Each structure stands twice: as structure tokens, then as C-alpha cells.
Amino acid sequence: MIKAGTFKGQTVAVFGLGRTGVSAALSLAAGGADVWAWDDRKVTRDQAAELGVSLKDLTTADWSQFNALVLSPGVPDRLPKPHWTALRAGEAGVEIICDIEIFAREVNARPEHDRPKIIAITGTNGKSTTTALIGHILKSVNKDAQIGGNIGRGVLDLDRMHAGTHYVIELSSYQLERTQSLRANAAVFLNLSPDHLERHGTLEDYGLAKQRIFTNQTAEDTAVIGVDDDYGKALCSQLKVKNGRRVLPISARRSLGHGVAVLGGKLFCKAHKKGVQICDMTKALALEGRHNWQNAAAAYAAVQSVGVNPKLIGKAILSFPGLAHRMETIGKLRKVRFVNDSKATNADAARQALASYDKIYWIAGGEPKTGGIKPLLDLMPNVSKAYLIGKAAPKFHKVLNKAEVENKVSGTLEMALVCATKDALQSDAKNPIVLLAPACASFDQFKDFEVRGDAFRSNVKDLINLFSKDVGTSTPPDSFESSA
Question: Which of 89, 204, 299, 301 maximizes the CB count within 10 A of its CB?
């Protein structure tokens, strides 16, 4: 744990006792702050108390006593409607921050020679894979790499900092909009597409929240920017003009006069006049698809900027084992391969997997996002049939019917998997893919995308086990036929 000593003697409200809220409350208390921790849900309060959080009721508190409100990133302070704690904080003139801001102040309080290195990653899609890949590379070269933020552990739950630590932090727009003091030695901005607009209001405001990752960088720091979309291209040009730091563009689609790119499946770095080949991405089995090649280019650029040998980075990229719920191969049943891309919670994220395979038996649906699946219709030639679940199913059904794409409203993930597997097994395709890439949030049927992905994995393993008991038959067992 990182003790928040910069808040010693202060009174701090903490609302939202999920992963980041609990770690913030414990960190502040360990650092000597008077913490008032609370959550609207009793079950969450009880769970936090079991983890050692001391609860104090914020509904009856005198808000003039608080020096800050640490508000869970998922709780709105502006749009679509301010939470009651944000309103109380505003009335009392209390600043609203998040756990990342506490972390940043702890780093800044240390002498400069004793500060850790910070690599921060944001973007609409690819953040988690890039973050995990950077952590893997650093650990492969025996660096003390601590990985957290919007992935895995809360940032304040990471091991205590020292000069040799490398903190690899995934940052959401929700976290960045409440962070003022963070300085990233390497800041990675992967891409931007419409998402979370109910929270930010406009795409412009969403992008500005993401751009806060570059705040406080100096000429000694590096900005890594994906230029495979128009927003990234413009942002890269804008930061180059400011001339305040080293700017490294990255691409998986085109050659760059300067930067890191994947061409013909090969990762190249062009820092000077001549490009140097780093590795053959076609051998990186856990990084399939052009979008993952961009993630690898970003990881290389970020890690190389903090002084790691390029050859060692290339070897580590090829040994990356992959990340759960991100184009994760679960297993194979005869000729059918099962891929879990539950993290694809919007159309742009689902596009990556749909563009990487053909003969797809596609499971989609859930809590619909703005734009639905219409942006994916150009990829429907890769889809043999779609199986629709959750709230989005009726609307997706109409869209696909209009586009003359074969589909079935399955309702539940379990039923969709059974139907998709049956159809894939009975198809003429040599290597069909049963793909969970929902293009939706999970909240209508699951707590989060990880629970959804875990359910898919469990159901796939159950199907494989069912078939393993029926080895040698050319058709599915009777029980499987009837359930479809």
C-alpha cells in the first residue's frame, strides 16, 4: 500500500467503496488523515468494513470540515446528473478528486531523485492490453513494475514507491477529469471514438478529459500518440507545435517518417533516418489483429522512452501471454475455436475482433451504447450468423435483418453459446470462430464485462467437457441438440 502522507491531519470524505474507494480510504487513514468513508449501498459498506475501512455517515456530516472529497470515478459530479455528494461538496467549496490525484501528490512530495517512473495509458480502446503488455515487458527485463489504476489493483493499493519503481497506470476519462497533478514520464494516448458521452456531454469534452494525461509533462518526458484516427493525427500535430516534450507517433496502418509502426506484420522503430526492425508481430500469438499491433507499437515506444534495450523489448512482446477478456482464446472443440472478447463494450472495440477473423458465429448484445452496431455493418461479410442477447437484442435484430445478416435472438449468453456452437460445428467452414464481442455494456445481465467473460469461459468449458464424454461421434450429443 502507498500511504497518503500528504493528507496527514486533514479531514477527507471518500464516497464509493469499490476497489479504488477502499484503497483510497485505507491509504488516507494509514497516512494520518481523518477519513469519512461512505457508500449508498449497505452491502458495499459492509464489504468495505470487512476490509478494514472505518465507516462514517456522510449524509449527516458537516461538509465545511472536509479538505477534499475523493469521489469514485464511476460516480458523476456533473453529467448526466451530479451525485448528492458532489452537490454537497460544491456548496461547501470542497475540491473533488480521485485516487489518481492522491497518488500524484505522493509522487510529487518526494525528492526528484527519489521518484518512481510513471507510464500512463489512456484511449477509448486498447488501454488494458497496452498497460498489461508494458508491465510484462518491464518485468521481463527485471524492472520493479507495478500495474494498476483502471485495471487490476487500485493505484494506492500498489506496493510502496521507491526510485527504481515503474508504475504502469491505465487511466479512464473518469479518472483523468479529477486529476490535476500527475506527471507521466511516458504518456500514451491510443485512440478516441465516441463513448461515455452521457458522462462528458460531447466528444470534444471526452477528448479533452483524455488529453489531461499530458498535463505537467516536461521536455524530459515522452508523449506517445496513436495516429490511425483523425483525432490522434490532429492531437499529434498540436503537441508537436507546443514543442514541450518528445512526441512519438505510432501506427499499425502506415509508414511514419518518425515514430513506431507495424508494416507487413513487422514492428519498426524509426527514431533517426533509418528504421530498425524490432520483431515480427505475426509471431506474437496473443496479439492478433491490427489493433493489437498498434498496442504493441505503443508499448514499445513507451518502454523504450524510459531506457529499456530495444532488442529485449522485442523479445518480451513476443512472449506476452495475453489478457483475459480481450480476444482471449478459451479453447477449441473439434474445428470450432472460442474467443472471449467481453471487453468489447462498444462498436469500435468489437470492430477489432470482427476484422481479425472470418466465419464468425457472433454473440452480441447487452446494455446498448450510443450508435449501436450500425458502424459494424461493413464487417458483416465476416459473420456467418449472429446470436443476440440482453436489452439490445430486439434493436440489433432489426438492424441485422435490414442488412440481410442471418441472426437469432437468443436472450441469454448461455443459450447464444449453445446455438452458435451447434451451428459452427455443423457448418462447412474449416475453422469457424464462436466469438463473444458484445459491442455493449454488460450491466443488464452481469455486474461487469469481467463477470460476463468469466461466464462465457465457464460455459465454453462445460460444453467442451460435455463433448469429451462423447468422443468419436460425428454429431452433437442428444442433450446438446435439444438444448439448442
Answer: 299
Q: How confident is the model at residue 446 (pLDDT cuts 50, 70, 90)?
A: very high
Check if the beta carbon of residue 407 is closer than 8 Å to that of residue 401: yes
When divided into structural domains, the chain yields a total of 3
Give yes or no: residues 268 and 204 share one domain.
yes
What nine digits make up the cell of 452? 460476463
Question: Cell numbers of 316, please?
Answer: 518480451
What's the domain range around 91? 5-97
CA proximity to 291, closest of 324, 262, 256: 262
Do residues 344 and 437 lie in contact, with contact meaning Cβ atoms separated by under 8 Å?
yes
Q: Do residues 422 and 476 make contact, with C-beta atoms less than 8 angstroms apart?
A: yes
Rounded to a whole number, what is the distance in angstroms from the first to the last CA of the chain? 49
SS3 call for 343: coil
Count CA atoms closer than 13 A to 26's CA, side-chain side: 20
For residue range 114-150, what is the model confidence (pLDDT) as tens digits?
999 999 999 998 999 999 999 999 999 999 999 999 9
Are 184 and 227 found together in one domain?
yes
Is 157 a member of any domain?
yes
* Residue 244 and residue 219 in contact, taking contact as beta carbons nearer than 8 Å: yes
Same domain? 123 vs 262: yes
Q: Indicate which CATH number applies to the domain containing 151.
A: 3.40.1190.10
CB neighbour burial string for 343-376, b if at least 16 within 10 angstroms, e if fewer: bbbbbbbbbbbbebbebbbbbbbbbbbebbbebb
Task: Examine the domain organization and report whether 112 and 20 are in the same domain.
Answer: no
**CA distances (Å), 209 to each of 20, 52, 200, 238, 378, in order?**
19, 33, 8, 16, 30
Cα 138 from chain centroid (whole Å): 19
Take residue 144 and report the three cell numbers written for it: 520493479
Average pLDDT score over the chain: 93
Dihedrals φ, ψ of 430, to 5°? -75, -40
Joined together, the cell numbers standing for residue 288 give 492478433
The secondary structure element, H or E, covering residue 333 is: strand 328-333
User: Does residue 323 form part of some domain?
Assistant: no
If asked whether residues 109 and 89 sit together in one domain, one would say no
264 in the same domain as 195: yes
Q: How many helices (H) and strands (E) does the chain have?
A: 16, 19
Asked whether the beta carbons of 69 and 89 are under 8 A apart, the reply is yes
202 and 62 in a single domain? The answer is no
* 151 and 196 inside one domain: yes
